[in-house]
Amino acid sequence: MSAVLIDGKKIAEEIRSELAGKVSALRTAGVVPGLAVILVGENPASVSYVTAKEKACEEIGIQSFETRFPENVAESVLLEKIAACNRDPKVHGILVQLPLPRHIDERRVIGAIDPSKDVDGFTPINLGRMLLEEPCYIPCTPLGIIELLKRSGVPTNGARAVVVGRSNIVGKPLANLLIRKSVNATVTVCHTGTRDLAAHVKEADIVIACAGKPGLVSIDMIKPGACIIDVGVNRVPDPTKKKGYRLCGDVDFEEASKVAGWITPVPGGVGPMTITMLLSNTIDAAARISDIALQ
Ligand code: NAP
């Protein structure tokens, strides 16, 4: 069997062209959607994520306001910046790039974001609302994965889904979205305490690998015809590359594509969808805050 490639870049482009219409409707009504981007330190992965997010904003007509702080910034300075963004009428969404340095209490910083501007969906208010299926901002990576499944025609109703990873930003919210009636999967969440990962993955119609461990999901673990969504982004040393490394996911892509029914590549799978959902949430925030109904 040769898997259908789920082209996240292409699907993301389709969604972005739909979103462009919403941005122009907002602009016509005198509202320029604005995203405040806060970056602490110079972690190369964080810098590249922020750069990609800002480029995507610019392309679609969202204004981004970047603030960079040095690694040793005081938590109080970050909290003041967030309070200023909460008050700023030009800012509709606030993004604090994670992870933050160890001396900063990530929960306190995220918790300081006004939930109506929390376009990453990381505040306790939005996560609680998500659980209750109330209007809210849903974390971008899980939201993007559900959209990928829908737009690729992967059957989810009654499907067995295995999520490998239980982080607050990917695994936990994703498991929650998968059990919504509108998706209707039966979900198992695996983690480092799982006794026999392979046995769980083998049962799955949909496998979502979000552990950040290259090669964690191998061909022998995959049920023929299963859908494999690879969230992992890992830098592995590669002297043949100019940068000295290459990116790979948590799944052995070459081998897994021989048995899977669908598969996402890394890069070019989940990543572009994460950014697109950030754009979508920011546009929604601009509309809600400005009390404009979008089609
Ligand atoms: P994280 O906070 O480090 O969480 C990793 C999760 O995987 C944890 O729950 C951990 O279990 C579990 N895990 C680790 N090793 C495992 C193993 N051997 N077997 C089973 N479970 C294992 O990471 P994250 O922030 O969720 O990110 C996960 C990966 O996705 C990373 O590679 C990250 O770069 C990538 N990512 C990609 C995007 C994108 O847009 N493409 C967005 C976000 C994240 P415990 O809880 O037991 O420790």
TrEMBL record:
Record SUPFAM superfamilies: Aminoacid dehydrogenase-like, N-terminal domain (SSF53223), NAD(P)-binding Rossmann-fold domains (SSF51735)
Any one GO BP annotation for this protein: purine nucleotide biosynthetic process
Stated role: Catalyzes the oxidation of 5,10-methylenetetrahydrofolate to 5,10-methenyltetrahydrofolate and then the hydrolysis of 5,10-methenyltetrahydrofolate to 10-formyltetrahydrofolate.
Reactions catalysed, as given in the entry: (6R)-5,10-methenyltetrahydrofolate + H2O = (6R)-10-formyltetrahydrofolate + H(+); (6R)-5,10-methylene-5,6,7,8-tetrahydrofolate + NADP(+) = (6R)-5,10-methenyltetrahydrofolate + NADPH
Oxidoreductase is among the record's keywords: yes
Keyword NADP: yes
Residues covered by the Tetrahydrofolate dehydrogenase/cyclohydrolase catalytic domain: 6-120
GO CC annotations on file: cytosol
Gene designation: folD
Database matches in CDD domains: NAD_bind_m-THF_DH_Cyclohyd (cd01080)
GO molecular-function terms, A-Z: methenyltetrahydrofolate cyclohydrolase activity; methylenetetrahydrofolate dehydrogenase (NADP+) activity
Name of the protein in its database record: Bifunctional protein FolD
Pathway this chain belongs to: One-carbon metabolism; tetrahydrofolate interconversion
Ranges of residues in domain Tetrahydrofolate dehydrogenase/cyclohydrolase NAD(P)-binding: 139-288
